[in-house]
């Protein structure tokens, strides 16, 4: 062994000396050494980030199994050395740190590597220390190889443990040092013995028949292996964590389910117990009843017996009396003999009328059994609650029913039962109402809706109204009701319709006595916007002509004259409001005016001041036409302000587009499709068309016009 | 004719480009700006021609007017040519800013030394549309025209002299009656000679009087605080009166507080683009 170690040492020395010459200049390393921290960075051996968490666990475990004993001895000798260096605190600190991070083996290796350098660094180290260091290789020479081999083996597993100490500056220098050193020290890996050896050993040592591979590549493959294993470990950890949290959830669910089942059972068992108690009571009562009957019967019999006895006794007495009669003739006369004979002929009923035994009563558990069997996991659900019938939820042949379930019960399906309610209440208690009359002139509609109102011409009370619609198609099924709206409380309704259609609408009144006949129908076309004029708002001097859509003013004198003024009518401005359906979307109408008519036309809020002028306040917007001596003047008024606009062709037919969606009110010369002006604003409320005359003249209003394409936003 | 692209900038998902070409009418190299909306990548688009005013080049409109968003939205190609031939080395062309370079007045000059090169009317009417239609995805049937100041004058006269060619016309502060204002007199005199009757053919107010049909929808915006309005260079009232007489539909808006600048143009350009889009996209 000594020979071997000697030769080894020599070889090493020579190796190291060669290595030394090939390695970076020593002063660098010695500088770094001087810091006293002999740690080197292991990052050349692969990813270290992953293994931060395992310094404690894996240090001192795993691959250590191999060659432990051999190492142990090396360690102990080392430690022995160290313990002797009591005075050198840093060393001890280092040793402690090393132990903590399982760096002992590495330390060995360092010392190994240092071996060759020790001569160099002698001057820097306290002599005593150096000597001891020097002593090491010799003493532990035998174990150098193995320990170094093991150290190398274990370097990978300790990579992470090095992390914490990798902040030292000299690491890079040491790396290159270390590499070069290692390559010379042991550069071949023996797969058979699973340890690094020197090439020399392969040729000449015990490994000469063994499989070998290049040390770097062996190292690489070893690293890969470990890397893979680490990955798998990580995966497992993630899985377990997921599973753990899942389990927690299940925990909670189990508790919940338990709670529900518990409740469920309680309810059911209570029911069962109740039923039993009930049965008991019933049977008991029946038993009591039976007893009573029996007793009664017996009592009756007893009475009867008593009576019989009395009778017998009387007879006996009578007979005895008779027997004592001395008069033989009268003795023979008395019919007493007959009595007795008759009496004795009668049968004596000595049978018991009733048995003392009570009948067998079978305790009927069937119901209870049923109950018990019905205790299953899912309780029957609570009854749903049907919503009251909403308007617009029925047609002539169908009905929409909605209900809600107000419990947490599990429901598989619902079962709807219905039956027609007969008209049996029509038994003269109350007469059905007469059909209402739809105010056809007051119908307001647009492309998508209609507002219909009617009046009830009945003294009979009315509970609600029902509207029936039929959409008119080209076929002859105009009488088929396509939709009906029930439960209307007032005399008006807003119905949603489809554009470009025609509908026939009628109304019925309903009360307890039943439903009225249908009213006269009205036709509604959803081709455009229809509105009517609100006569109540007309200024006294403004006349509405017969067609209902032409307004005229004859004279302007005394606009504030003493004609009757209604609360709602304009007082100064000779104007009138229309009644536009309060519905979003677009509305279009046209106004025809002669060239010499001065007017204001536009829209206004319902509550625009009746004492004001249209356009002069902030609740109205209008186009105003006046004629000056030189030209036609056009103003677009709101809050009394207007832009300065000249129009060369006085429009005779003005198109007005009210577009709630796009926030605009536009005016057009409808004859030439010329856009005149647009107010851009967001209407806060629904508005009504407004019209006013400033000179004697006529304005003709046209409604129900489909929105022309040239009014669209380009 | 070969087009050379001078610049290209992406704008509102379309492209603002500038091209240069050799003009046969003007006998010099001419540049023009052209905005191609995103729609032009997949289909043919109508074309809106913009004519700029005195001292402008093809750059002013494309950089200052802020029209790209509206043009992109409505899918319109917008072409902005230069205001006169350049680099012709004509004596006196750079003497004043309101005559010669940058002041073509959209006429075909008949006087020397201008008559060879200063043919902006024919350039805008024929050569440029032909060039544009041949090189870009245009719908040759759908064309409209508008402009500012001298360009407004150009737009009006081109529309009035070519009924049916343009679907719509509009203008910002146009020189409506050049025969009656200082600018017009100088330019028309210089390009066309002293025979005033020859000027009528290039005066919108005059042309309206003999305009054959009324199928034009004219929108005019005029800043109320425009110095040139008060200086009597623009004379919109004359034009309006003539249109009223002839029943040509015009909506003329006098905009409170606005002047003659591109700030004014930028404020109302969207309304004008919408006005044209209504007819071009119909």
TrEMBL record, chain A:
CDD domains: FN3. Residues 1-35, 55-89, 123-164 are annotated as: Disordered. Keywords: Coiled coil. Pfam families: SPRY. Residues 270-297 form a coiled coil. Residues 432-529 form the Fibronectin type-III domain. Transmembrane segments: none annotated. Residues 63-73, 145-161 have a biased composition (Basic and acidic residues). Residues 511-710 form the B30.2/SPRY domain. The keyword Coiled coil applies. This is Fibronectin type III and SPRY domain containing 2. It comes from Bubo bubo.
Automatic annotation (TrEMBL), chain B:
The active site is at 149 (charge relay system), 226 (charge relay system), 260 (charge relay system). Its EC number is 3.1.2.12. The lineage of its organism: Eukaryota, Metazoa, Chordata, Craniata, Vertebrata. It is found in: Cytoplasm. It catalyses: S-formylglutathione + H2O = formate + glutathione + H(+). Keywords: Cytoplasm, Hydrolase, Serine esterase. One of its GO terms (biological process) is formaldehyde catabolic process. GO terms for cellular component: cytosol. The keyword Cytoplasm applies. Serine hydrolase involved in the detoxification of formaldehyde. Belongs to the esterase D family. This is S-formylglutathione hydrolase. Pfam families: Esterase (PF00756). GO terms for molecular function: carboxylic ester hydrolase activity; S-formylglutathione hydrolase activity. Transmembrane segments: none annotated. InterPro entries: AB_hydrolase_fold, Esterase-like, S-formylglutathione_hydrol. NCBIfam families: fghA_ester_D.
């Amino acid at each position: 062994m000594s020979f071997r170690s000697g030769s080894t040492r020599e070889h090493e020395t020579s190796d190291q000396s060669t290595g030394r010459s090939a390695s970076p200049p020593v002063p660098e390393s010695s500088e770094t050494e001087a810091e006293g921290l002999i740690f080197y960075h292991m990052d050349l051996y692969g990813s270290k980030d992953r293994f931060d968490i395992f310094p404690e666990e894996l240090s001192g475990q795993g691959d250590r199994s191999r060659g432990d004993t051999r190492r142990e001895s090396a360690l102990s000798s080392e430690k022995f050395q160290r313990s002797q260096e009591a005075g050198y605190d840093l060393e001890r600190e280092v040793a402690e740190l090393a132990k903590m991070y399982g760096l002992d083996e590495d330390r060995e290796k360092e010392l190994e590597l240092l071996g060759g350098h020790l001569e160099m660094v002698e001057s820097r180290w306290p002599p005593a220390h150096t000597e001891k260091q020097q002593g090491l290789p010799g003493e532990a020479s035998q174990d150098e190889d193995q320990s170094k081999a093991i150290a190398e083996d274990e370097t990978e597993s300790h990579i992470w443990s090095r992390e914490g100490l990798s902040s030292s500056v000299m690491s890079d220098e040491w790396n290159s040092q270390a590499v070069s050193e290692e390559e010379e020290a042991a550069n071949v890996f023996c797969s058979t013995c699973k340890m690094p050896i020197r090439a020399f050993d392969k040729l000449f040592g015990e490994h000469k028949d063994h499989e070998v591979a290049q040390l770097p590549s062996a190292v690489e493959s070893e690293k890969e292996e470990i890397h893979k294993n680490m990955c798998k470990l990580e995966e497992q950890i993630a899985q377990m964590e997921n599973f753990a949290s899942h389990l927690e959830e299940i925990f909670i669910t189990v508790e919940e389910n338990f709670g529900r089942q518990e409740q469920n059972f309680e309810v059911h068992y209570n029911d069962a117990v109740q039923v039993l108690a009930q049965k008991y009571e019933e049977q008991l009562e029946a038993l009591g009843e039976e007893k009573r009957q029996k007793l009664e019967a017996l009592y009756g019999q007893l009475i009867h017996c008593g009576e019989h006895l009395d009778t017998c006794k009387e007879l006996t007495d009578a007979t005895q009396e008779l027997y004592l009669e001395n008069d033989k003739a009268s003795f023979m006369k008395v019919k007493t003999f007959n009595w007795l004979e008759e009496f004795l002929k009668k049968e004596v009923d000595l049978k018991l009328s009733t048995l003392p035994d009570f009948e067998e009563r079978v305790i009927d558990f069937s119901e209870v059994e049923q109950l018990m069997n019905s205790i299953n996991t899912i309780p029957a659900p609570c009854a749903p609650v049907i919503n009251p019938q909403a308007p617009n939820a029925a047609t002539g042949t169908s009905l929409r029913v909605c209900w809600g379930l107000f419990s947490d019960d599990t429901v598989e399906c619902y079962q709807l039962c219905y039956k027609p309610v007969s008209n049996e209440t029509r038994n003269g208690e109350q007469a059905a109402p007469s059909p209402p009359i739809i105010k056809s002139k007051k119908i307001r509609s647009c492309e998508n809706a209609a507002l219909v109102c009617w009046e009830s011409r009945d003294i009979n009370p009315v509970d609600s109204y029902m509207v029936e619609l039929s959409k008119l198609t080209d076929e002859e099924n105009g009488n088929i009701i396509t939709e009906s709206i029930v439960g209307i409380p007032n005399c008006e309704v807003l119905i949603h319709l489809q554009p470009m259609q025609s509908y026939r609408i009628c109304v019925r009144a309903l009360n307890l006595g039943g439903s009225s006949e249908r009213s006269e129908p009205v036709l509604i076309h959803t081709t455009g916007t229809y509105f009517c004029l609100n006569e109540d708002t007309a200024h006294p001097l403004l006349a509405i002509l017969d067609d209902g859509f032409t307004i005229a003013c004859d004279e302007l004198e005394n606009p504030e004259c003493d004609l009757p003024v209604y609360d709602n009518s304009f007082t100064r401005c000779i104007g009138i409001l229309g009644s536009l359906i309060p519905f979003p979307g677009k509305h279009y109408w046209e106004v025809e005016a002669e060239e010499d008519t001065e007017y204001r036309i536009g829209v206004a809020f319902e509550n625009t001041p009746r004492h004001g002028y249209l356009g002069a306040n902030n609740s109205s917007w209008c186009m105003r036409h006046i004629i000056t001596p030189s030209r036609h003047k056009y103003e677009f008024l709101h809050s009394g302000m207007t832009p300065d606009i000249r129009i060369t062709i006085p429009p005779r037919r003005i198109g007005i587009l009210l577009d709630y969606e796009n926030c605009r009110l536009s005016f057009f010369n409808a004859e030439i499709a010329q856009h005149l002006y647009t107010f851009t604003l967001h209407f806060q409320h629904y508005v009504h068309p407004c019209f006013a005359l400033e000179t004697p003249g006529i304005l003709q209003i046209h409604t129900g016009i489909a929105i022309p394409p040239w009014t669209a936003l380009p | 004719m070969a087009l050379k692209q001078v610049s290209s900038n992406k704008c509102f998902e379309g492209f603002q480009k500038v091209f240069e070409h050799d003009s046969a009418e003007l006998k010099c190299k001419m540049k023009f700006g052209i905005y191609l909306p995103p729609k032009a990548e997949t289909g043919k688009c109508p074309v809106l021609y913009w004519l700029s005013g005195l001292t402008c080049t093809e750059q002013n409109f494309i950089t200052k007017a802020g029209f790209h968003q509206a043009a992109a939205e409505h899918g319109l190609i917008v072409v902005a040519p230069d205001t006169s031939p350049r680099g012709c080395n004509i004596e006196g062309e750079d003497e004043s800013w309101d005559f010669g370079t940058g002041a073509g007045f959209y006429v075909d000059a008949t006087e020397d030394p201008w008559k060879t090169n200063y043919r902006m009317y024919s350039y805008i009417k024929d050569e440029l549309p032909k060039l544009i239609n041949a090189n870009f995805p245009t719908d040759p049937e759908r064309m409209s025209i508008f402009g500012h100041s001298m360009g407004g004058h150009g737009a009006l006269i081109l529309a009035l002299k070519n009924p049916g060619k343009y679907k719509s016309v509009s203008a910002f502060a146009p020189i409506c009656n050049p025969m009656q204002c200082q600018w017009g007199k100088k330019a028309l005199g210089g390009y066309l000679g002293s025979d005033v009757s020859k000027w009528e053919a290039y005066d919108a107010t005059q042309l309206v009087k003999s305009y054959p049909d009324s199928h034009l929808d004219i929108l005019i915006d005029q800043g109320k605080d425009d110095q040139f309005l008060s200086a009597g260079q623009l004379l919109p009232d004359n034009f309006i009166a003539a249109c009223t007489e002839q029943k040509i539909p015009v909506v003329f808006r006098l905009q409170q507080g606005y002047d003659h600048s591109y700030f004014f143009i930028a404020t109302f350009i969207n309304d004008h683009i919408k006005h044209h889009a209504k007819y071009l996209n119909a």
